[in-house]
Protein: AraC family transcriptional regulator
Organism: Pseudomonas flexibilis
Amino acid sequence: MRERTIASHFVRAALHGAQARDLDIAALLADAGLPPTVLEETAARVTAAQYARLIRLLWRRLDDEYLGLAAQPSLPGTFAMMACSIIHCGTLEKALRRGIRFYRLFPGSPEFSLRREGAQAWLCLHVDPTHDPEHFLSESLLLIWHRLASWLIGQRIALEELRFAYPQPAHVVEYDLLFPGVRHFSADFTGLRFVAAHLDQPLLQDERTLKRFLEQAPADLLSRPAGDDSLIVRIQRLLGRDCRQWPDLEQLARQLNCSPQTLRRRLREQGSSFQVIKDQLRRDRAIYLLGHPELSIQEIAEQLGFSEASAFHRAFRKWTHLTPGAYREPVEK
């Protein structure tokens, strides 16, 4: 899972604020180790490490943790100060409510709210779309706060329902990993619904663990998986990294204690298939390996289970609209 890649949409969306301020985008990409083709090809993808590096770079250049996507900037270190202010709260609910009050001290900041509805709870967010046309800041903040809450209580908080106050985006397929759960678009508000009992749980973290957490946060919260236990993620874990030793569908079904027919049906209901999952894993592994210049294209093709480099070229171009060589092309600084 650490080799998961991120769609180029999120790179383009993250750069919106920098473009509005007339920063040198080519120089930013070069400093982040990203080729300019990332912006040109809609199917291109980047590694989680590259993406996190770009986000941290944008924070420094813009002097804004909101990346220029809110009415007012949030100075670097604001998130860390908020985290320090909530770490000693007795329960998750007290921590979230204190964090919400903290950000309300800064006019123009995105507005969070927390409410209970019986056995369920909603964490809602409002971001002015004038400054966030791609809804990048909205999606980023939802990810960060959900993963922060999960970290605070030491367990992943399952999402029961998600609502978004904007139409379904073209990159909706990425939501399967970002926001696993029942999703509704063009809703009256943007928010996450989860079991309210989580709010009563005590915090399991302290100042010592918070220090380690903040060394890379919240950039790594945007780029790493959320610990999802969905069927697709379970299959990815069972397949592992060695593409040459993958089990076939029948073997995989036995490992999951179901029939091949049932497995195919369940994947179809989730809009996927065994072949799609394998292609995505090969694609992400290929992008990861292309970041290691000591490996030749032929060696990478062999590690991915291709009998010939030409077959790898065709597959990679289908996945990303780029050749392996073009993706690996050195970034000029």
